[in-house]
Amino acid sequence: MELWVDVVNQALVFGALAISLNLVMGYLGYLSLAHAAFFGLGAYTMAVLTRTHEWPFVPATTVAVLASAVAGLVVALASLRMSGEYVVLMTLAVLSIGNQVARSWVDVTGGATGLFPIEPASLFGLSPQSVVAWVPVLSVVTAVILAVVWRLGESPYGRVLKAIRDDPRATSALGKRVVRFQFQVFAISAAMAGLVGALWGSYLEFVSPTSFGLDAAMLVAAIVVLGGTANPVGSVIAAAALISLPDILAKLDIGGDNAAPIRNVAYGVALILLVRYRPAGLLRESRHVGRLFGGAPPLPEAVAPGGDSVVSTPAGAGRRLGGRALSKRFGAIAALDDVDIELPEGQITALIGPNGAGKSTLFNVLTGDLRPDGGTVTLGELDLTGQPSYRTARAGVGRTFQDVRLFQTMSVFDNVVVAVPEQPGERLGPLFLAPARVRGGEDAARRIAAECLSFVRLDHLADRPVNDLAFGDQKLVALARLLAMGSTVMLLDEPSAGTDPGRVSMMLDVVRTLAGSGRTVCLVEHNLDVIRRLEGRAYFLDEGRIVAVDTVDHLMASPALVESYFGGPARERA
User: Fold this and answer.
1) pLDDT of residue 247
2) pTM for this one?
C-alpha cells in the first residue's frame, strides 16, 4: 500500500514542478532545462540550513524559495537576447554547472553522496512522519501552485505572455514591456521549483545530485509536453500517468526474464502513440483567456460599424510626428542619410520609392524598433529619440508590419483585446489583490476590442483562430489592434499588399475615417493607385534620402523619379 502512496506523492511533486515549468515553457515559450537546477537549489538550501545551521523548516524553505527566485532572474537576464534553441543550450549549461557544484562542494553539499539524514519538516506545528501523512501536504502545495499558475496564465497577464511567445517584437510594439514579463515569469517559476525542491528533500530526508540532473529535467519537460503546453491541468494528469506507468507495467506478469525490456518497449510505444495522435498534449491550449478546456467566452455585444466612440479623436491627438536629420547605417550601407520628415495630424502621408530605399528602416526608427545613429524623433514636444518601441507605443505611435505579425496561436478577438493599454490584469498586484478591479478592466477591454472589430467589419470572425483568416482580413485585424491601442499616430506598412480589391476599398475607407478623426496616418505603399485614392502627399525615398515631397501625380510626372521607382528608363514605361 505504501508503494502506491509513494507513487501518489511523487506524482504530486513532479506535477507541481511541471505546472511551474509550464508557466515558462507553455505560456512564455521558453524550454528551460535549468528548472531541475532550481528544484535542486531549493532542496540543498533547505537541507544545509536545517541540517548544518539548525534552522526551522519554514524559514529555511523561505530562503530556499528566495534563492531559487534570484537564480531564475539570473537565467532570465542571460536569456533576454537569445532565441529559443540557444536558451535550451544555455539552461542546459546552467543545469550542468549546478550539478557539478553539488558534486564538488563536498564541505557544504556532501558531494556525490549527498546530505543525510535531514530532519523531517515541521509545518506550523505539524510534522508529517509517514508517507501517508505527506499526501495532504503535497496535495495542498500542488493545488496552490496550480491556482497561482492558472491565475497568471488564464488572465490578461497570461494573454500578454502568449503574445510574447508568438512574437515579442509585435508585443513590444503594442506598448508591453516584454522584459518585465520575462523577468517576472522566470522568477516566479523558479521560486515554485525551489519550494517543491525543499519539500522533496524533506520528504526523502535525503538530498543528492542524482535527483536533480538531466533525467529530472527531461522528465518534467516531457510531462509538460504530454499534458499540454499552456494548460496546467494537463500537467497534473500527465504527471500521474508518467510517474505511475512504470510501476503499473512492473506489476504485469509478462515476459518472464524479459519483463523489464518488454515493459520499457511498451512504455516507449505508449509515448509515441500519444505524441502521434495527440501532438498538442492530453489537454489542448485554450485560445481564450479564462478557459482551460477551449470553450469560447461570450463576446460583448458589438456596436454598429463606424460607431463614434471607436473613431473619436483620441487623447493626445493633434501632435505631429517628425524626424530631423535621421541617419542609420548597417556597416557600409547608409539605410537613412540625413532624412527630414514631418507627419501632420489629421492627414495621410505616404512613403514611396524603390525596394531598398529605406522606407521600412525609417518606420523602424520612428517607432523605436531601431535606434538612429544620428538625428531626433519628436511627437509634438516629446522627444522620442532612442526610446524603445514599447515606450514609443505608449506615447501614441502605433504601427503595423508588412508581414502582419499577428499572434498566430490566439483568436482574432484576443489579438485585439491584448492591445488595449493599462489593463489592471496585466500587473501582478491587482491580479492577485484586486480581482474586482481586474474583472472590471477585462470587461472594459473586451468592449473596446468588440467595437474595434465591428469598426473594421470583422466582428463575425472574432472567435476564429487568426491564422485561419485570409491575408486581407489579417491586415484588418492589425488595424483593429491599432485602434484598440488608442494610437494617435498610425504607421501602416504596405496595408494593401496581398489584399483583394474589395478589402483594399474597405481598408481605404478605414484609413480615411481614422485621418478624419484627427489621427496622423502614414503608410508605406507600392500601389500608387491606393495613394492617389487617399489624396495624400508622398515622400519619395531613394538610397536612404528624401529626394522629393509632393502628390503622387506630380512625383510620377518626373522622368528621373519614374526611372528610379520602376528601375528603367521612363520612356519604356510610357
Assistant:
1) 77
2) 0.90
